[in-house]
Amino acid sequence: MATLILVLGDQLTETLPAIAEAVKSKDTILMAEVREEATYVKHHKKKIAFLFSAMRHFAQALRDDNFNVNYVKYTDDNNKGDLLAQVKHEVSVHNYDAVKVTMPGEYRLLKSMEQWENALGIPVTICDDNRFLSTPKEFTDWAEGRKQLRMEFFYREMRRKHNILMEGKNPIGGKWNYDSQNRESMPETQKVPKHTTFDIDDITSDVIELVKNEFNDHFGDIDSFHFAVTRKDALTVLNTFIEERLPNFGQYQDAMVEGKPWLYHSHIAFYLNCGLLTPKEAIQAAEQAYYAGQVPLNSAEGFIRQILGWREYVRGFYWHFMPNLKTDNYFNNSRALPSFFWDAQTNMNCMRQCIKETQQNAYAHHIQRLMVIGNFSLLTELSPEEVQAWYLLVYADAYEWVELPNVAGMILYSDGGNLASKPYVASGSYINKMSNYCKNCGYQVSKKTGPKACPFNYLYWHFIDKHKEKLSNNHRMAMIYKTYGRMKEENIEAMKQDATLFLSKLTKNEEV
Ligand code: FAD
Ligand code: DLZ
Ligand code: SF4
């Protein structure tokens, strides 16, 4: 009995059961670069180059390990363009008795794969993805019966379950969370270590040519490609981060600096999400560095919470709330994305910098995604559908299971508050506090109204005013509505007028 094992572009992990249990003498692993996956949203050029190169290197590593691998390149004559068509073709040519896949990271693909047995006429097994530290069922069991779902409580259970940074039943240091120490802006004189880069080999060079030829109309720059594309190099990124950046990770986690896209972040989401690294090894590396006295607790805990907490939480959340999560639209927003989301041509320096860096690197760090681009998207009432598609295509670490909860739940509040306890909105003063963007801006952050006023200021109060019925009963918004209640009517009116003018400019796609 010969089985065809399909391995997707984000399943590049040899310990996945579907791969580890393959019978090397009989089974074949199929990997395919297909048009449908690369274009159903027009992924960033660098994301496609990264993933295709990582896939080709992984196929080579499997061959070196004596697996039979059938790798279908994008321009091969027998490329059928989508995953099912490719599997169908291979099954018809080679007479496999069964097909195995691993649970995909997208609802769309899972629903399709659940029909494959009918389409192929042979058994199709969907194996578990054992790379996570929790399962979707565990999340649902945890969520059921709770009035409110909050990541912090899920995270504490994960800490206990996996015995991470624990002293018996208690968290090390006596607190679960050290976020209050993790909100510093960065002095201009701070010397940030250079981010880890790799030379381009022949495989990556071929793939870059392919991307230039086939995906030239996709968003983003392809030059200065520097990503790791093998497990060995991804491990170098992780180890260098632990040594050079993790000590300062906590302190400067929320800071933004013009011209410095990488800062003290780890840059490992690319590799965790496609399988070149596992979350467990990243968590253990940070925990060991803390025990060895190399990093402070606020940094180790802060980093571990992102992976053991947020990453696991959003995955459980995704599967629990799909398919509604994708279509929910709590504030009924529908404005089209302004064109500067594609070319960074705006006078708002914070948006210009964050979008430009996204264009260059297929990367922006969390606070840029959340408090600049995300904040702007909610305040300007952009269509959730369009914002979701944008975030899914522009970042090289984006797959729907992780992108959608962050976009729909965290930045747009389009799920009505299942993920976030309140909308993440802020005026320009937050951006000014956490970055140096405002110094080089066409607008003035200190001004609340008028043509030179920072748009985030009046858009913020416009949002607070417009959604008072939906939000003023939220106790986490109480302080804001108290301040709003004390504001002079004429000031609110002036901000609403400026916001209306700004929004109408966006609708007409005029320069802002
Ligand atoms: P670091 O800042 O070094 O953090 C360490 C790791 O923690 C990350 O690699 C990631 O695996 C995990 N992590 C941190 N925050 C989150 C989070 N909110 N959700 C899930 N994992 C988290 N992350 C993605 O991996 N893919 C996405 O498509 C994605 N889209 C996002 C969209 C929005 C609107 C927002 C606000 C956040 C999004 N994130 C996404 C989360 C976070 O911004 C990225 O994980 C992070 O910026 C990746 O860079 P890094 O590896 O340097 O992370
Ligand atoms: C993102 C992506 C891209 C760009 N291309 C491919 C591909 O050609 N072949 C493939 O198997 N996977 C690709 N992927 C990853 C899939 O889209 C991903 O597996 C699903 O979105 C589920 O997470
Ligand atoms: Fe952004 Fe406003 Fe600061 Fe300009 S002034 S960079 S628009 S926050």
UniProtKB/TrEMBL annotation:
MF terms (GO), sorted A to Z:
lyase activity
Q: Which UniProt keywords apply?
A: Lyase
- Does Lyase count among this protein's keywords? yes
InterPro entries per UniProt: Crypto/Photolyase_FAD-like_sf (IPR036134), PhrB-like (IPR007357), Rossmann-like_a/b/a_fold (IPR014729), UV-DNA_repair_photolyase (IPR052551)
Q: Which domain of life is it from?
A: Bacteria
- What is the name attached to this protein's record? Cryptochrome/photolyase family protein
Report the source organism.
Alteromonas portus
